[in-house]
Amino acid sequence: MLNEREVISLIALLDDDDNEVAQHVEDKLLSLGTDVISFLEQEWGVIKNLEQQRKIENIIHRIQFTELLNKLRAWSKEPEPELLDGILLIAKYRYPDIDKQKVIAELDRIRLDAWLEMNLDLTAYEKVRVLNHVIYSLNGFKGNTTNYHDPQNSFINNVLESKKGNPIMLAIVYMLVAQRLQIPIYGVNLPQHFVMAYKEEPITKITDPSFGAKPKMDYRYGKVLFYINAFNNGAVFSKANLEQFLIQIKIEPKYEFFEACSNIDIIKRVLRNLVVAYEKSDKKTKVDEVHEMLALLGEPTLDKFEDTTPDDGDEEE
Alpha-carbon torsion 82, 80, 114, 268, what sign? Predict the structure, then answer.
């Protein structure tokens, strides 16, 4: 258990004239992990020395970032990483104290709006029309074309509050609501523009091999009925439209451009967009940290799949 008096004494030594002493104290505080954050925050409010405050802020951030990396690594090793958990971890990078239950409550509220307008007789297209009405007309979600590369577009709590986002974050909100309604809509890792696929023919999959385990319906491997563009108010388009788009951007069609991708792929793409956003705002430290998150997920370098700006015309399918 941490001794409050000892911790406060260590914090006071952060301003020591001897750099070696100050560095040793910083390393000691970092080694104490998340338990020391409350003490650091308390002392930050008392201390008047701006340089000492800056050092405390830096220590708090480094502790929180290390904890975030550990949680992201654990999430990526799960048998079936949940999309919501992954996107909440990204939000914790900017908002360490994000209220998970508040995010879930908002998604469930939108889900209820849609559920009230659904019935068992609706076709796939009709279900999408209901989702589009609820998400775009009733709740007012739209693409953030004014500040397309704003880092805030990559944090789900901000997107749910502002009702604005980039293609992939709008798609994530759309998918999380749809999947809560057991509607089989999944992400597609299309170059330069993230879209969604409406699937059919669910595959029965045993996720727990133990005796008596119940089968889980996994839609990701079924046939694609059509595609959906979350950035264009949920516009529906066909495989032929998607192929034409690839021809326009001069990229050879590949199988993975037409099929549902994994939740880890989705999170990596969000992180790549975040790298671009921080590069455009000249936040080198943040760029480096997001690259650390990508490296942890097995992708150390930025590739061709970051989303382009709306001015490039790729949002129209």
Answer: positive
Q: What phi and psi values does residue 56 have, to the nearest 5 degrees?
A: -65, -45
How far is it, in rounded angstroms, from Cα 229 to Cα 236?
7
Each as own residue / partner, the long-range contacts of residues 277-281 (CB below 8 Å, 24 or more positions apart, any chain) are 277/149, 277/150, 277/151, 277/153, 277/154, 278/151, 280/149, 281/149, 281/151
* CA dist list (Å): 266 to 14, 136, 138, 173, 219: 41, 22, 26, 12, 17
> What whole-number distance in Å separates Cα of residue 30 and Cα of residue 26?
6
**pTM for this predicted structure:** 0.85
In the structure encoding, which two tokens stand for residue 157, read together? 């709590």
d(CA 68, CA 74): 10
Other Cβ atoms closer than 10 A to 117: 14
**CA quadruple 254, 174, 82, 91: dihedral, nearest 10:** 110
pLDDT digits (tens, 9 = 90+) for 74-93: 999 999 999 999 999 999 99
